[in-house]
Amino acid sequence: MSAHVLVAEDDAKQAEVIRRYLESEGHTALVVHDGRAAIDEVRRHRPDLLVLDVMMPLVDGLDVCRILRRECDLPVLMLTARSTEEDLLLGLDLGADDYMTKPYSPRELMARIRTLLRRTRTAAITPDDPVLRVGALAVDPVRRTVEFGGRPVNCTAGEFDVLATMAADPDRVFTRRQLLIGTRGSDRYITERTVDVHILNLRKKIESVPGRPTYLLTVFGVGYKLTDGSRAS
């Protein structure tokens, strides 16, 4: 599974390590050292994945993610020396698909990249793969697309996986842990609050009034469920 990966990292030594690991796995890698160059390169060549350091000159990684999320659904893996839960949730809220804190193992980084690429690659389209429909919501697990009321909805890889898991079993109550395992596996670095962030972001995208949802409902003390929108909790 060869891919074109853009590495935005201002530390030249770390960037070179990442580049060598990527190329050893058969990927092509381009390295840039500031946020402005990262934005320009994504706009020019649209890589398959962006490895994005948070602390960068000209435009920091959080602003890079915020800007690019308005334009495309490029998978983003953020790297940072910040390790608080608030930083993690902020990165995810801005649209990052995964988040690693420094120092990190290059081998684990490659494993995360492989996982993201597997999840975001478009599979071959076959007519036997049904679209999951729940009310006005249509989730296509093959094309990895979402429509609501006939209009396309831009989702990150994590948001899509949460929504597709729930759309496959409407009205079922999922715990946060079930959604986490169903979408990312039992990764010790990702917390259950990640699911809360994905749900909040999805509500902004598909609910008429995100604060009073009719599709993505909270089941207090348990988790979440997806309904057809005909009733609120």
Could you give the order of strands across the largest sheet?
Answer: 2-1-3-4-5
Largest sheet: 5 strands, parallel
Compressed to H and E, one letter per element, the order equals: EHEHEHEHEHEEEEHEHHEE
CATH fold type of the largest domain: Rossmann fold
Radius of gyration: 18 Å
Overall 3D geometry? elongated
Number of strands: 12
Structural class: alpha/beta
Keywords: DNA-binding, Phosphoprotein, Transcription, Transcription regulation
InterPro entries: CheY-like_superfamily, OmpR/PhoB-type_DNA-bd, Sig_transdc_resp-reg_C-effctor, Sig_transdc_resp-reg_receiver, WalR-like, WH-like_DNA-bd_sf
Domain OmpR/PhoB-type: 129-228
Pfam family, one: Trans_reg_C
Describe this structure in words.
The chain has 233 residues and is an alpha/beta fold. It has two domains: 4-120, Rossmann fold; 132-226, Winged helix-like DNA-binding domain superfamily/Winged helix DNA-binding domain (Arc Repressor Mutant, subunit A, Orthogonal Bundle), CATH 1.10.10.10. It is built from eight helices and twelve strands. The longest helix has 15 residues, at 106-120.
